[in-house]
Design goal:
about 25% helix, single chain, four-stranded antiparallel beta sheet, 12 strands, alpha+beta, 11 helices
Length: about 325
């Protein structure tokens, strides 16, 4: 790890007035600094900035520094969000990691984390090693010739499905942006991963009230049961009335370069029967536009099956 200057602002105003890299739980930033993937000269420890709190009185509001473990355990948090958090990392990391930091975590692509390998995210214009290399874990949706890395966050998938928004602050004021619009596809500029502007700080995560999101879940398929990133995941909320799907929210992880909302699957579900056959038909369009690589073509079928599994959990009480 290279030398850096550390300061600890105690207000939002002081934090956004000082150029530097924000440090919250440190579960991503410190790792990348140790690997020399990130080499900030000035680090701002923002843990004393008053950005905590969980409010479930009308929708959900999380202070950006609220820890993942606290949100997962809080009564009234929609099940898809709680479960996505509980399936993330280990309990020790969930105790440390902030919700804002989780949403900004960098990809776990091994080429990004290896400074000896070409990576357009790390060094723009150097190339993407994964396209012709080991790419089993990589994306099949939203990819480009410059980058095929998946987005790492579990809870971002659930939040995108539930139309979450971010509140952001900088020295000029505040703004709000839909989380689904915040993340950027790699295109020709994979180093630009989101719409966070220089000096901006996430202050709050807001999830609109959606009463039927109480009937939601998050299914994560991975190589081992714990402390592993998703091969594929699905966040689903379902409004079923008299055996008919009145409305649905569906997003996927582990398959896209960003948390991947699936409006085509949602549209296929609406108005149809809440049956396994109907779920399979709706999920069949989930991978439309996919561009599998040499080692991850299995994700097309896995995505479809993961969505069906999540839908069946909500309609049959399955705990598979």
């Amino acid at each position: 790890m290279r030398p850096f200057e550390l300061t600890a602002p105690t207000t939002v105003e002081a934090a956004v007035a000082t150029p530097g890299t924000y440090l919250a739980g440190g579960t991503t930033l410190v790792d990348l600094m140790k690997l020399d993937v990130l080499t900030p000269e000035h680090v701002l420890d923002i843990n004393e900035v008053p950005l905590r709190g969980i409010d479930t009185s009308d929708g959900l509001r999380f202070g950006a520094l609220e820890r993942m473990a606290a949100i997962a355990a809080h009564p009234g948090v929609y099940p898809a969000i709680s479960r996505a958090l509980l399936l993330s990392a280990s309990q020790q990391l969930r105790n440390m990691a902030s919700i804002g930091g989780n949403l900004l975590q960098r990809t776990r692509c091994s080429y990004f984390r290896d400074v000896a390998m070409p990576c357009n995210k790390r060094v723009p214009g150097s190339g993407c090693s994964a396209i012709t290399g080991a790419n089993r874990m990589h994306a099949i949706l939203g990819t480009s010739e410059s980058c095929v890395a998946t987005h790492a966050s579990d809870v971002a998938v659930a939040l995108v499905a539930l139309d979450a928004r971010l509140r952001l602050a900088d020295a000029t004021g505040t703004r709000e942006v839909a989380l689904g619009d915040f993340y950027q596809l790699p295109g020709d500029t994979p180093a630009v991963e989101n719409d966070l502007r220089p000096g901006e700080l996430i202050t709050e995560v807001v999830v609109p009230r959606l009463d039927w999101a109480a009937n939601s879940t998050y299914v994560k398929v991975r190589d081992r049961q714990s402390y592993e990133f998703a091969l594929c995941s699905a966040a689903v909320a379902l409004d079923v009335r008299d055996g008919v799907v009145a409305d649905a929210r569906v997003a996927a992880g582990g398959v896209g370069t960003v948390p991947w909302r699936l409006p085509s699957v949602e549209a296929a579900l609406r108005g149809g029967p809440a049956t396994e056959a109907a779920f399979e038909a709706a999920a069949a369009v989930a991978a439309d536009g996919a561009q599998p690589l040499s080692e991850n073509g299995f994700k097309v079928t896995l995505l479809q099956r993961t969505i069906v599994r999540a839908l069946l959990e909500l309609t049959e009480g399955s705990s598979r």
